[in-house]
Q: What sequence folds into this?
């Protein structure tokens, strides 16, 4: 049964959390992409049934039922992951993240080596302070070394209204605009838009703070990493170029990258999910 609960952060904020599976099983925490929230990816739920996993999703601050945390950085999420793990009595955890959530999954490994056994990151963004960074997001916030909160808010509010108003027909039109090899399934689109609509129903604070965090130094040293990280990135990704994943792999110890020729930003997640989970789960045994 899917359960939803509230967890209090170390500074008193509310974190809205979703869980499924056996609390005594291997724990896997999902870091959703920008615009998305705690809704668990359906194949992750199926894996929980097959492999006795305890899977967890949560609304980052400002999304869904979680209290906003203006000015948060990528590194700040580590205290929230710690609070969730403590509340659920979890001592070892794997993470999996998509897009902006992939960046958070990388950061989890670096910052929480005593908790995280392995991290999977699909099409993550690299730190803005890295050289020659390219940032090209669905949110239509222009790449720049500085963050303009007013321009970002206007763009994100418009995008939010479009997402909330989109119909099933509109979703399929978006998918069909991609070349065939870059499209995703109807089931994936249903999950993606269901998660987004729930996450941004209260407002645009969540995506606004996510975007601000992408234009801010992460607040950690990637060179200190000692946890296995696997990055999956498609060379046809027009949202976060695959050079982001390659840079992270080259500049973060114990990180390997898996590149595909034809995958887009979304299709890499759907098409490589099973492979990534087969890579991640054995680390529970090797980390003992």
A:
């Amino acid at each position: 049964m899917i359960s939803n609960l509230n967890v209090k952060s170390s500074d008193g904020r509310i974190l809205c959390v979703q869980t499924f599976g056996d609390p005594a099983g291997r724990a896997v925490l999902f870091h959703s992409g920008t615009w998305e929230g705690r809704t668990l990816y359906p194949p992750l739920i199926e894996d929980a049934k097959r492999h006795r996993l305890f899977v967890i999703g949560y609304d980052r601050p400002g999304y869904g039922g979680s209290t906003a945390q203006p000015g948060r950085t990528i590194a700040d999420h580590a205290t929230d992951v710690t609070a969730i793990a403590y509340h659920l009595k979890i001592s070892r955890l794997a993470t999996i993240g998509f897009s902006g959530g992939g960046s958070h999954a990388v950061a989890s490994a670096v910052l929480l080596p005593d908790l995280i056994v392995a991290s999977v990151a699909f099409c993550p963004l690299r730190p803005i302070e890295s050289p020659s960074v390219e940032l090209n997001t669905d949110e239509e916030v222009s790449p720049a070394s500085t963050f303009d909160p007013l321009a970002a808010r206007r763009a994100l509010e418009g995008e939010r209204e479009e997402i909330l108003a989109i119909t099933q027909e509109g979703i399929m039109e978006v998918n069909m605009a991609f070349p065939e090899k870059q499209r995703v399934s109807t089931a994936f689109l249903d999950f993606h838009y269901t998660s987004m609509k729930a996450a941004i129903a209260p407002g645009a604070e969540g995506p606004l703070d996510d975007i601000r965090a992408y234009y801010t130094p992460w607040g950690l040293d990637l060179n200190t990493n000692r946890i296995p990280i696997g990055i999956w990135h498609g060379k046809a990704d027009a949202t976060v170029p695959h050079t982001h994943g390659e840079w992270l792999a080259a500049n973060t110890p114990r990180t390997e990258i898996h590149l595909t020729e034809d995958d887009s930003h979304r299709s890499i997640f759907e098409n490589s999910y099973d492979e990534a989970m087969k890579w991640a789960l054995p680390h529970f045994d090797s980390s003992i």
Summary: The mean pLDDT is 92.
